[in-house]
Amino acid sequence: MREIKFLLSGIIKRKRGEIKVAEVKRKKGETFESFVRRFSKKVQQSGRLIQSRKIRYHEKRKNKNAVRAAAARRQEITDKREYLKKIGKLVEEPTRR
C-alpha cells in the first residue's frame, strides 16, 4: 500500500492577499495527532496568528471631509427627528432594558 503524503499549510486571508503562516510535512511513521500538534506549535511560534488577531478590526483613518460629512448627516437626521417629535408625527417608543 502506498503511503499518503500529508502537507499542512496555514494561510491567513487578508484584504490585500494571503499570508503563508507555516508549512509542515508529515514525517514517516508520525501519527496524525502529533502531526497536527506540530503544525499548531509552528503556527503559534510564527506569531502571525497573534498579529492577525490584533489588526483584525483595524480601519484606516478617514479624511477630515468624510468625518465632517458623516457628522453633518447624523446632525441632519437628529434635527429631522426632533422636528417630527415636536409636531407630533413621531411617537417615541419606550426603550427596552
Describe this structure as you would to a colleague.
This protein is of the alpha+beta class. The protein has two domains: 48 residues, no CATH class; 31 residues. 47% of the residues lie in helices and 18% in strands. It contains three helices and two strands. The chain has a two-stranded antiparallel sheet with strand order 1-2. A hairpin with a 2-residue loop joins strand 1 and strand 2. The radius of gyration is 27 Å and the shape is elongated. The N terminus is likely disordered.
Structure keywords:
97 residues, disordered N terminus, two-stranded antiparallel ribbon, 47% helix, alpha+beta
List the topology elements.
Blueprint: E1 7-14, E2 17-25, H1 32-46, H2 48-54, H3 64-87
Antiparallel strand pairs: 1-2
How would you summarize this macromolecular structure in one to three sentences?
The protein has 97 residues and is an alpha+beta fold. The chain has helices at residues 32-46, 48-54, 64-87, and strands spanning 7-14, 17-25.
What order do the SSEs take from the amino end to the carboxyl end, as H and E?
A: EEHHH
Q: Tally the structural domains.
A: 2
Could you say which overall geometry the principal axes of the C-alpha atoms support?
Answer: elongated
User: How would you characterize the largest beta sheet?
Assistant: 2 strands, antiparallel
Strand content: 15-25%
pLDDT averaged over residues: 81
* Side-by-side strand order of the widest sheet: 1-2
Regions with pLDDT < 50 over 5+ consecutive residues? 1-5
Number of helices: 3
Specify the structural class: alpha+beta
Helix content estimate: 40-55%
Distance between the termini: 65 Å
Computed Rg: 27 Å
- Let me know the number of strands: 2
